[in-house]
Model the fold of this input.
Amino acid sequence: MLPLEGITVVAVEQAVAAPFCSSRLADAGAHVVKIERPEGDFARGYDAAAKGQSSYFVWLNRGKDSRVVDLAEPDGRAELETLIASADVLLQNLKPGSMDRMGFARERLRKDYPKLICCTITGYGDTGPYADRKAYDLLIQAESGLASITGGPEGPSRVGMSIVDVATGAT
Done:
């Protein structure tokens, strides 16, 4: 028996950080339901190296159930509400404020589902001058100085993989 068997995670996620996190939870036995927008997670288009599929997407989303839910529509938000009501964990890494605007503010979720664990992955946290900004791996590599120690004589360069997103998802 795996340590997280019997745990349900609803993951409103895209790209790398949250999908890496939820893939670790799935590896530990959790049932992970990945919520994708109608056009799909944009990581599906990163490459076509895995038999025509994105290697990143396959790596980050194996072992999950994927559901297409249009959160821009009332029916989609109602479907997400139903999924959350039966979940143990809600994980999300949408643009800061997106879940709030759709009616899924953490304060409300804590009140309505007191046993629900809410995990929000952001680039800059909940408060401060950058709290409302989106973050990308390359941006954080540059801002942190990581890009300044990679590259060659022609200048700094990005680390070859999404190291900031992977480290964030791991922690």
